[in-house]
Structures are given as structure tokens and as C-alpha cells.
Amino acid sequence: MTALPTTSQTDIETWMADFLADRLGLPAAEVDRHALMTDYGMDSVTAISMLEELTAVVGLEIDPDVIWDFPTISALAGYAHERSSQTSEPGVMRPTS
């Protein structure tokens, strides 16, 4: 698993769409980035798997609860991008209130 070339929201969204498409066996272009990931059958096991891989490619630890706070690819990618641009040091990405 290699890191993303950048942590832009678009790069993260593309990676997440590819991840879900691979798990679903459909073209990434058919994954709606604004649909709830649970609509695609995302369960807690798949969510944890995705977050573990996303942690590796983005370089920041992501709190597992975040996926339920940001339930679409677009929302979670936006959050991951925002957090990764706030720090150059590894850290834990958690929702902010």
C-alpha cells in the first residue's frame, strides 16, 4: 500500500471510491461520492478495514467513530483533507465539536 501523491480532497475521494468499488465489484465511476456509504453495504468491519488502509495512505490515524460522523465519501474525504492539512505530524483525526 502506497501513500497518496497528495492529500487533496479529490485524491482521498478517489481512493475511497476505488476502495468501495473494489469491495463491491463495480466500476469506481458508479460509486456516488455523496451517497451514504451504508447504502453500499458498508458495515463496521468494512469501515474499520477502510479506515486502517486510509490511515496508511494519508499518514494520519483516524478515530473509527469518524466514519459515522462523516457518512459519505465526500464528507469523510473533506474531513481527512482538512485534518491532514492542519498538521505535518502524525496524529489522531477526531471529529471537532
Automatic annotation (TrEMBL):
InterPro entries: ACP-like_sf (IPR036736), PKS_PP-bd (IPR020806), PP-bd_ACP (IPR009081). Residues 10-84 form the Carrier domain. The keyword Signal does not apply. One of its GO terms (molecular function) is phosphopantetheine binding. Gene3D superfamilies: ACP-like. Coiled coil: none annotated. This is Acyl carrier protein.
